[in-house]
TrEMBL record:
SUPFAM superfamilies (UniProt xref): Eukaryotic type KH-domain (KH-domain type I), Nucleic acid-binding proteins, Ribonuclease PH domain 2-like, Ribosomal protein S5 domain 2-like
Organism the protein comes from: Natronogracilivirga saccharolytica
Compartments where located: Cytoplasm
A Pfam family matched in the record: KH_1
Gene3D superfamilies: GHMP Kinase, N-terminal domain, K Homology domain, type 1, Nucleic acid-binding proteins
Residues holding Mg(2+): D486, D492
Record protein name field: Polyribonucleotide nucleotidyltransferase
Stretches assigned to the S1 motif domain: 625-693
Keywords, sorted A to Z: Cytoplasm, Magnesium, Metal-binding, Nucleotidyltransferase, RNA-binding, Transferase
Family that this chain belongs to: Belongs to the polyribonucleotide nucleotidyltransferase family.
Cofactor or coenzyme needed: Mg(2+)
A Gene Ontology biological process term: RNA processing
SMART domains for the chain: KH (SM00322), S1 (SM00316)
Length: 701
């Protein structure tokens, strides 16, 4: 079959080419999408029928980057790709969050979307290309899908907005976001920025949406030519008679619960009691309709929560829309970590700890598009007890990776450069309680723990999760949403920043047509909430501690000439290993220009001093008159050769062993003995003359 490539210019100077429906034809829909020399394939496959009694939509999205796409071998011993990298998981999540709301209600067929990067030019990232390919494959397939959608990356570079910038161009960006949307509206935003204003962020989204609309129309044009006939949308069976009876039985109970200002557990228990009563009331008449009765009750619960909010301006726990739950914080809670902080907001609590390390502790990142060392990292843990549940604890979930990435991006712009603070930094956030936005609690506790650790962060960072309830004529923006408001609301908008601007964001919109004016309103309300949270954080800590923890490693940097590096390392690393073993310090060497930069780190200053002394000895900086602890390497009739620095031996003549006469060297020393000696002289040619007797008082003869 001959290729029929189609191309669109979706932004000035930006083209995308697609090849749809010609390859991977066993899937319901397939496409290859290309920008530059990066090519991504996406397939969409769905089971022909839903499993009986399937209560949810089983959608899975996979994103794969094969090293072969860039002409590279995988790093490590096994030369085959293994488990998904964090980059692949994050890319899959971005696609999932944008396409999931576009499947029709009631569609329960198991569906899988697989995106794979088959060619990479190293400049055009495959994530947003894969998102367009996923949407196109679904759009031309026979799977019910209410798209298309598209994603683009938007960046501000030298004051100008650029759609889908290259990896190189991104290095100069002060704002970077991935925006997903349809022809009508934006449905997903995620990104990081350097303290930008709310207005600048909205303007970036506008530019992105202009390109998104062109890509969506392009997909519709392709569908007209290549699309398959869609399966009929499922019409869920509704027992209207039973639904009416359940509604009559429940009456205003859910409304009363929504007005009762309850905690999470109280609210959940009260709603569960109503569902249980309804099931018991109709168990005899409708013995096989328990699931349907629960579904009707859930709909009534959602309707009641939204009604009380829209008409009475009251939330489940009694708060007003803009009100933030009570906050308390504490720093220095963990005695032996290098820094720690607790942040509690309502029923959400995160405990963060900081570990400071050396360059040796950096995380090496090796992906298709990026190969670099990572010196700041944040890990987010969400154990089952934080929501009062019992679950198997397996590996790190995709959700944990996604939430940790958002918090890391929120904080990393405020982390000092290596020139200012040369430590490797790891933040670990353990969520101890969760009822809404534990990722934003992680940002707050993480920021406080960094200051507690003495990391000279530029400014404190806080985060807040915003929500929204929308009907035909009215909307309400909610600050600091809790779990039920997220689940039954129309928007989840997380915003992090300092007192001067936004550092990261993540937005998911569940309804179509939210205007930019409403988005600006939500961002302004989020700013007010962020300022309030920053004030509460400042009650515990407002600036970094002047010094790092006494338990953190200390390190010193010294410079040597580049031609001395070989002598310090030694053959096969023998010398540097000896320095580390004997001093107890870690030693790392980097060649920078014509200099060798040596970083020496240890948990005690004495160990660092010992390593410095040994290095100075190797580089010819031995000082006459100084005392050294050496090792006897060999014994001759006339004396012993003592190694006082790795690779530097000196002669300890038999006459310098003691003030009294020594007949045999072996009467005093054996090979391998440690002995303190004084360096008497460095003779021409670098020969060393040592003395033991110079350190022995004469009255001990």
């Amino acid at each position: 079959m001959k290729a029929d490539f189609k191309t669109i210019e979706y932004a000035p100077g930006k083209e995308m080419t697609i090849d749809a429906g010609r390859l991977a034809k066993q899937a319901n829909g397939s496409s290859f999408v290309r920008i530059g020399d990066t090519v991504v394939m996406a397939t969409a496959t769905s089971a022909p029928e839903a499993k009986p009694g399937q209560p949810f939509f089983p959608l899975t999205v996979e994103f794969k980057e094969t090293y072969a796409a860039g002409g590279k071998f995988p790093g490590g011993f096994i030369k085959r790709e293994g488990r998904p990298s964090e980059k692949e998981i994050l890319s899959a999540r971005l696609i999932d969050r944008t396409i999931r709301p576009l499947f029709p209600d009631g569609f329960m067929n198991e569906t899988q979307v697989i995106c794979q990067v088959f060619s990479s030019d190293g400049e055009n990232d495959g994530d947003v290309i894969g998102a367009v390919a996923a949407s196109l494959s679904l759009t031309i397939s026979d799977i019910p899908f209410e798209g298309p959608m598209a994603q683009v990356r938007i960046a501000r570079i030298n004051g100008e907005f650029v759609v889908n910038p290259t990896v190189t161009e991104l290095k100069a960006a002060d704002l970077e976001m991935i925006v997903g949307g349809t022809l009508e509206s934006v449905v997903m935003v995620e990104g990081e920025m350097e303290e930008v204003s709310e207005e600048d962020m909205v303007e970036a989204i506008r530019h992105a949406h202009d390109a998104i609309k062109k890509l969506c129309q392009f997909q519709l044009d392709v569908r007209e030519e290549l699309g398959k006939e869609k399966w009929e949308k499922p019409e869920p069976e509704v027992n209207t008679e039973l639904e009416a009876k359940v509604r009559e039985h429940a009456g205003n109970k859910f409304l009363d619960i929504s007005r009762s200002k309850l905690s999470k557990k109280e609210y959940s228990a009260a709603c569960k009691d109503v569902r249980t009563e309804a099931k018991e009331a109709f168990a005899e008449e409708y013995p096989e309709e328990e699931e349907f009765i629960s579904e009707v009750c859930h709909v009534m619960q959602k309707e009641a929560m939204r009604k009380v909010l829209l008409e009475e301006n009251q939330r489940i726990d009694g708060r007003k829309p803009e009100e933030i739950r009570p906050i308390w914080t504490e720093v220095g809670y963990l005695p032996r970590t290098h820094g720690s902080a607790i942040f509690t907001r309502g029923e959400t609590q995160a405990l963060a700890s900081v570990t400071l390390g050396t360059k040796r502790d950096e995380q090496m990142i090796d992906t298709l598009f990026y190969s670099d060392a990572k010196r700041f990292m944040l890990d987010y843990n969400f154990p089952p007890f934080c929501t009062g549940e019992v679950k198997m604890m397996r590996g790190v979930s995709r959700r944990e990776i996604g939430h940790g990435n958002l918090a890391e991006r929120a904080l990393k712009k405020m982390v000092p450069s290596t020139d200012e603070f040369d430590y490797t930094i790891r933040v670990v956030s353990d969520v101890l309680e969760s009822n809404g936005s534990s990722s934003m609690a992680t940002v707050c506790s993480g920021s406080m723990s960094l200051m507690d650790a003495g990391v000279p962060v530029k400014k404190p960072v806080a985060g807040i999760a915003m929500g929204m309830i929308v009907d035909e004529n009215k909307h309400v923006v909610l600050s600091d949403i809790q779990g039920e408001e997220d689940h039954m609301g129309d928007m989840d908008f997380k915003v992090t920043g300092t007192s001067d601007g936004i550092t990261a964001c993540q937005m998911d919109i569940k309804v179509k047509g939210i205007s930019y004016e409403v988005m600006v309103e939500a961002l302004q309300q989020a700013r007010e909430g962020r300022m309030h949270i920053l004030e509460k954080m400042a009650e515990s800590i407002s600036q970094p501690r002047p010094e790092v923890s006494k338990y953190a490693p200390s390190f010193v940097k010294i410079e040597v000439d580049s031609d001395q590096i070989g002598g310090i390392i030694g053959p096969g690393g023998k010398v540097i290993q000896s320095i580390q073993r004997e001093s107890g310090a870690e030693v790392m060497i980097e060649e920078v220009g014509n200099k060798g930069v040596i970083t020496i780190s240890a948990d005690e200053k004495e160990k660092i001093d010992a390593a410095i002394q040994k290095i100075k000895g190797i580089t010819g900086d031995l000082e006459e008159g100084e005392v050294y602890l050496g090792t006897v390497r060999s014994i001759k009739e006339y004396g012993a050769f003592v190694e006082i620095m790795p690779g530097r031996d000196g002669l300890l003549h038999i006459s310098e062993l003691d003030h009294k006469r020594i007949n045999k060297v072996t009467d005093v020393l054996s090979e391998g003995d440690k002995v303190e000696v004084k360096l008497l002289k460095v003779e021409d040619g670098g020969k060393l003359r040592l003395s033991r007797k110079a350190l022995i008082p004469k009255d001990q003869e």
